[in-house]
Every structure is written in structure tokens, then in C-alpha cells.
Design goal:
Layout (H helix, E strand, L loop, with lengths): L1 H25 L1 H8 L3 H44 L2 E2 L9 H16 L4 E7 L6 H21 L7 E7 L10 H7 L1 E8 L1
Amino acid sequence: MRRHGLVLFLVALLILPVFAVTFTSCGGKEVKKQMGLTDEEKARLEAERLAREKAEADRLAKEKELEMERQRQAAAREAFLNDHAYFDFDQYSIRPDAEIVLRAKADYLTENANILAEIQGHADERGTEAYNMALGDRRAKSAMNFLETLGISGTRLTTVSYGEERPLCSDKTEDCWQKNRRAQFAIIGE
């Protein structure tokens, strides 16, 4: 019986290496996966992960840049429509502060070459209705002429006078009257 156990033991020692060689040669890839990735595979996966992160960061940066540009354009449009060129009492010459406003409007029109604008001339309530209509007209045309000297084509601009018909303020004070003596802009086409 001892001998029989010894024979079985020796047979097992001889057969075991054959099974080990068979299993490792047939399933080498499985063993490799179980043991972990090679350095080359790890480097490839890391490079892929970094590339995905960079692409996502680039996408987010581009989205932020586009949003900032949309906000800039919206603010420029808002300023174009709401910043007015003001005039002195009974005058239609361009004041230095109005020149700054009109230069900004010229910049906006240059950046947005498809826009057609209407320049609306206004006057305060003092003076006759006919006089204020004529004064509003001269103010609108004065603003238009200034824009043309800055390179804006007159074909993109129209003028209209509202005289005293559309006041921004109705108080009977100089501050209020000053707000009403203006050239105001509207976008009439894009």
C-alpha cells in the first residue's frame, strides 16, 4: 500500500508540470489579464484618458468663450440702442460727449455690417412744434453726417424727427429737458 501511494505520488509529480504547461500556453492572455495590465497598456489607457479630459476642457473653454462673446454682443447692442447723443439747448452741433457716443455707435455698425439704423432726432418742449420738428431733423442729420465721416455708409442710415413728441422725461427742469434733446438710434433692419 505504501508502494502504491508512492507510485501515485510520483505519477502526480510527473503529470502536474504537463498540465501546468498546457494551461499556461492556452490561456496565457487570461492569466495576463488577471495579473494586471502591461506598462504599455497602462500608458495607452492613460493617454486616452488625458485626451478625453483635454477634449472636454477644450469644449468647456469654447462654450465659455462663445457665451462671453454673446454677452459682449448683447451689451454692445444694448448700448447702441440706449446710449443717446445729447445736444445743447437750441443747438444741433455735436458735443464732445456726444462724439464719444457716436464713435461707439460707428464701431458697433462697423462690426455689424448687416444692420440698418434709424437716427431719431428729438427736442425738448420749449419752442413751437414746427421749430422742434425742424431742430430734431437737424440733430438727426448732424449725427448721421458725423457717422458718415467715420466711414459708415449713408445707405445704412435713415433719419426721422420726432421733435418734442417722444420725451424721455416730462418734468419742467433743465435736467429733464437735457434728456429730451437727443439723437436716439433704432435698428430697422438686419
